[in-house]
Amino acid sequence: MKKVLLTFFSLTMILVLAACGNNNTANNAANSAATTAPTEAAAEPSTEPAAEPVTLVIGASPVPHAEILKAIAPLLEAQGITLEIKEFTDYVLPNTQLAEKGLDANFFQHKPYLDDQNAKNGTELVSVTAVHVEPFGAYSKKIKSIDELADGAKVAIPNDATNGGRALILLAKNGLITLKDDTNIASTKADITENPKKLEIIELDAAMLPRQLDEVDLALINTNFALEAGLVPTKDALFIEGTDSPYANLLVARPDNKDSDAIQKLAAALNSAEAKAFIDEKYEGAIIPAF
């Protein structure tokens, strides 16, 4: 009888110990899961893409546009954006290459010119932001005052539609000619209604005008080309547009990239306090911030 009781007691203890072992195993597994779960969650990779360096290829006139871009380049480098600046001395290729995606943006033109080029070429380039105004001026190596301009004098103006119209408007506002509408940027020589001095108005490529000052009596020159030629608009121009000129120069992009992070950061840099300080100090009123 004692043997039977001892056997029964032994079996009971084995079953109890087995149950305890199972419970401990379960508890250990649960504890292990509770301990490791947070670690696994923390180890999951972020769904946000890592920031990658970006290079923006920007077409610009050498002066002042490329100079302004170089001045604000450090602001962008701090944000992982490198500017590759391609300089152009004409007003056609920067838009052509931008439309063909050879450039990411350009910086050289005002809105009337942009609108004209879009209409002529079937492009859809868009303004991102206005940066500065370049007052348009009249220059001469032959006379010191507009009162000295002789009858039949040769007057050179840009041969592109909007800048030619802008030059004619400036001539009209200074009493040298009369136009049908002296606010119409699309004015041409055919819109001249009065020319009392019988001025000979010659249309030339805008970039050539500074080099023609020896050949003509008066030339109406875009400020960027005047600056490149060493002219100081605020001192050398016989007359010049006022600071209320509506022809602000623009940062221009395409519809597919105008809202990209890099282009928007470039726009912000061009409208920054650093850009304004550079323009004011470098150009001394010949160029006026538009922001």
What are the low-pLDDT stretches, counting only 5+ consecutive residues below 50?
1-50
Measured distance between first and last alpha carbons: 107 Å
What would you report as the Rg, rounded to the nearest angstrom? Answer: 36 Å
Overall pLDDT score: 86
User: Count of DSSP E strands?
Assistant: 13
- Order of adjacent strands in the largest pleated sheet: 2-1-3-12-4-13
* Shape label: globular
Largest beta-sheet details: 6 strands, mixed
Portion in beta strands: 15-25%
- How would you spell out the order of helices and strands? HEHEHEHEEEHEEEEHHEEHHE
Task: Summarize the amount of helix as a percent range.
Answer: 40-55%
Class based on secondary structure composition and strand pairing: alpha/beta
Nutshell version of this structure?
The protein contains 9 helices and 13 strands.
How do the strands and helices of this protein lay out in sequence?
Elements: H1 2-43, E1 54-60, H2 62-77, E2 81-87, H3 93-99, E3 105-110, H4 111-121, E4 126-133, E5 137-139, E6 154-158, H5 161-173, E7 178-179, E8 192-194, E9 200-204, E10 218-221, H6 223-228, H7 233-236, E11 239-240, E12 248-253, H8 261-270, H9 273-283, E13 288-289
Parallel strand pairs: 1-2, 1-3, 6-9, 6-10
Antiparallel strand pairs: 3-12, 4-12, 4-13, 5-10, 5-11, 7-8
